[in-house]
Amino acid sequence: MAVPSNTPSKTTPGKYRLTGFALTIFSLIGLFALILFFAIGTSIQGEEFSPITFQVRTFAYRRIPGIKVRITKTVYGTPKSIVTASILKHLPWTSPNGRWDVVTVSESANIDERRASILVRSLEARGPNYSRFWEEWSHHHPNFAKELWPIVQDAAMQEKYLCVPELLQLAREASTPDELAAKGRQILDNSPRVIAE
Questions:
Q1: Strands 55-64 and 69-70
Q2: pTM: predicted TM-score of the whole model, two decimal places
């Protein structure tokens, strides 16, 4: 019967090298995961809309997820107009006042569309010939456009974006510009203002 030995087993130097190599690999993987988390998990991006100038701009910053503490300042893109003169000439308020409403916010893989996106997506909608529908409509119906766009701008200024589809539908169905003006103001006045998002 064999007697167990009390002498410690000898380990080969190669075993230590393998363990050190594995630790290095795991450390690098962990560092890569941390960098990836920082690059993706802390990034907040989005788009904003000016109800005065009908322009959009991008924004981006970084914050720590969970506690939502900002770690960088907000960087804004150059504003660009999403409408041309066929709509702009009918907007009564045209001087920039620094007001921007959030259209979308993207955090990691999540994209949150806000109420201002209702108007922005409508203005970007394409018609049958792939031109922007409301640009064409305003060009071909200037008397209606003269009544519609001030009401739509008022809706945006009052943060009543939810009534925009109804206003645009009315514009397509109204018989006269006066009917559009009267019913449009009624829709705007009866629409609730929703601020919190």
A1: antiparallel
A2: 0.77
Q: How far apart are CA 147 and CA 170, in angstroms?
A: 11
Question: Of 115, 108, 113, which Cα lies nearest the Cα of 194?
Answer: 115
The answer to whether the beta carbons of residues 177 and 146 sit under 8 Å apart is yes
Q: What is the CB neighbour count within 10 angstroms for residue 161?
A: 24
Question: What size, in residues, is the chain?
Answer: 197
Q: Under DSSP, is residue 96 helix (H, G, I), strand (E, B) or coil?
A: coil
Structure tokens of 136?
């064409």
The first and second tokens of residue 43, run together, are: 């990034």
Give per-residue pLDDT as tens, 24-73.
666 666 655 555 555 555 789 999 999 999 999 999 999 887 777 888 99
Quote the crossing angle between the two packed helices 142-157 and 177-190, to the nearest 10°: 10
Residue 134 has φ and ψ, to the nearest 5°, of -75, -20
Helix (H) or strand (E) holding 133: helix 133-140
Considering only CA atoms, which of 111, 110, 113 is closest in space to residue 197? 113
